[in-house]
Amino acid sequence: MELNQKYIQIRNDFITICKPLQNEDYSVQPAEFVSPPKWHLAHTTWFFEQFVLVKFKEGYKVFDEDFAYLFNSYYNNAGDRVLRPNRGLMTRPTVDEVRNYRAYVDENVIELLNKNPSDEINDIVELGLQHEQQHQELFHYDIKYILGHQPTFPNFKSDVKLDAITSNPQFIKIEEGIYEIGFNGKGFHFDCELGHHKVYLNGFEIRNQLVTNADYIDFIESGAYDNFNLWHAEGWDFIKNENINSPLYWHKWNDDWCAYTYDGFKKVDLNLPVSHISFYEAWAFAEWKGMRLPTEFEWEVASSKLSYGQLWEWTNSAFLPYPNFKKPEGAIGEYNGKFMVNQMVLRGASIATPQNHSRKTYRNFFHPNLRWMFSGIRLVK
């Protein structure tokens, strides 16, 4: 697909995803880590305006001088910005103004792409599209949190649904040896997937299925959330300080475990993979089972033998640079490199990951306490 066609398709996908929203939904921010839908739509547009149009399109006039301040996320090289916890305070600009902003920027980007731009421009547009797809997935996390913390648990029309696991789990054996890790080839990849290198792995066995809700209920009912022996010290402090005793969105109702889904408040389906799990909980569950989480290298080596894509899978690896990793200069260099501290790697993809946006070398990363993303557990022994 030509880049201009890909641009139009991906940009339109975000508008389609937002169609079930009411105007009142667009500006809500119930927690610091949640961004309002309107902000996502504007920020992804700001990315193209700031890094493509302002830099490369001769005579370009920005849509609104204030938007660079309102919709920058964390790029210090790109100037000042609204603090993340304050994104939900912006009722202005309106949703219609943000839609107009998207249309204005799209028209200018397409005009630029139709003039046989340089490889540098094409590469930044491609990065912007990958960035847009990341925010499409984040939108799914955020709108579930926004609606899942309302008293009536309203529905959200979405095709994003987990598949049941109905067969018995098996363990796949991976032999010890030296393996190649990281991106190596043609096509898009993020800088943190480089450099390609070799690692030595001891032999291990990895489960061919994710942990299910039924598995996790056994963990809960064993008293695991009250057994400090299963937890990291930091994880134990986290669940006790936050009064956590089950996955996010779960509630005990008339002696049944129920959970908020896009289809409303439902009884927990025992055959679905357990989701919305922190790293602390994933690690404690593995400890309870007498097993462990895979390292990100083990996961990557085993990935060709696994079916994945339901949930991002926690690994026992910190998000750190590979050998010979090099940050690009300027704001683009802030994309991944400055987050390589106090974060854990997740691998795979999720039901909310846009099509063609995943690969076995993709390194997702989150703080170990976060649970609002579509995260799950795979075991190793």
CATH class of the largest domain reads: Alpha Beta
Uncertain runs are none
Number of E strands: 11
Number of individual domains:
2
CATH superfamily of the largest domain: paralog of FGE (formylglycine-generating enzyme)
Form type: globular
CATH-level-2 architecture of the largest domain:
Alpha-Beta Complex
Q: What strand order characterises the main sheet?
A: 10-9-8-11
Strand content: 5-15%
Indicate the multimeric state: single chain
Report mean pLDDT, rounded to a whole number.
97
What are the secondary-structure elements, in order, as H or E?
HHHHHEEEEHHEEEHHEEEE
CATH topology of the largest domain: paralog of FGE (formylglycine-generating enzyme)
Largest sheet: 4 strands, mixed
Number of helices: 9
Distance between the termini: 43 Å
What is the CA-atom radius of gyration, in angstroms?
Answer: 21 Å
Question: What structural class do you assign from the helix and strand content?
Answer: alpha+beta
